[in-house]
């Protein structure tokens, strides 16, 4: 038997089974592809809901689940119809070309059925290749994992408020423990009893918890040429100074610098899990919460499993990131804004994140000065000006009232300015009667009212207290 005849017989013998295979294979692939697309779309829909909704995230996602369940029944009817159409098309082909045995295929009458359809095999290989190639894009395993954790999020949302509060209190107690292995790195003038006794949400409490890492912070700021106290202010803003801190919304941020998993990996930190999201990951935070509870908030174990919890490595990575943002966008305020949202806003100074970070930075430097540390006094004055807590003495009037000048910052009004002036007076330990909005004047001594504009001066008239 010639080689050509052998090849022809092999082709002929495989043609009918191949058509039978296609009759079941292609509808099955069409149905599975439809389910995969729906699964990915549902995952994205839940992600959008999670991003938009804040306080009632659990109930909102439960409602989304119900809606997606109804859509699935409608969508599945379309997918089944497509799969059935593919099946019927192949079935008709099989009826037209009945199965031939090897002996029948040799007969001259059946020569019209000889020769294998190469395009059919290429199509099958293409479908299989497409299915394999689509898996990394669709990330179906991650979507299935998200559905599981979304269910946990919904259950948590309907837990009793008393139980939720109790868990939060227990978590904060655990998080607030100072790792014994880091004691040698702490300032000699820091009393850990004082740290534990301070309110974690107060400026003083955040300062004391962040001050624990002052030696590391100051050395890294100098190493990377970062403005003094900027990293400390960012830590006070992001994590209250607790190295095992998790984002309150469980969006994936963790550690002193509150790094998202994707950004942490970009800066060389090992992270728990498979998430590489640089923005919000709705369920990564829940996995981290489970991780810290399983390991009983043990700093040594957790900092090895996820380096965002490592004090030195996380601060160094955060410093490199903020330095890169400053080089890219030109100012520290823009760098802070980019740190929070990926890219800076047009007016970073007007955002809550930048304002609060700068206030914490100023407070941190003030506390360092009070403890006898060397600080940049020019920077401190610059921060006071930028935070609206700077007032220049002008003169004493004939009625013995003091006049101070203040350059207006965008968003300020007479009430805000008078409030800030009272804070500044208290900080300077001056003895003035508390001022209100009526004490904010123009150059002629009249109440400024609505004639107040950014970067223009206003004057505060202060009355000394009687001795």
Features:
3 domains, 4 strands, mainly alpha, four-stranded antiparallel sheet, elongated
Strand order of the largest sheet: 1-2-4-3
Radius of gyration: 34 Å
Main sheet overview: 4 strands, antiparallel
Number of helices: 18
CATH top level class name of the largest domain: Mainly Alpha
Q: How helical, in percent, are the residues?
A: 55-70%
Describe this structure in words.
The protein is mainly α. It has 3 domains: 3-157, no CATH class; 165-378, Orthogonal Bundle (Lysozyme), CATH 1.10.530.10; 388-462, no CATH class. Helix content is 60%, strand content 4%. The chain has helices at residues 3-52, 57-96, 102-106, 118-138, 140-157, 161-175, 192-197, 203-211, 214-224, 230-239, 261-266, 284-294, 299-305, 311-329, 332-341, 352-370, 377-386, 414-428, and strands spanning 392-396, 402-407, 440-441, 457-462. A 4-stranded antiparallel beta sheet has the order 1-2-4-3.
Brief synopsis:
The protein is mainly alpha-helical. The chain has helices at 3-52, 57-96, 102-106, 118-138, 140-157, 161-175, 192-197, 203-211, 214-224, 230-239, 261-266, 284-294, 299-305, 311-329, 332-341, 352-370, 377-386, 414-428; strands at residues 392-396, 402-407, 440-441, 457-462.
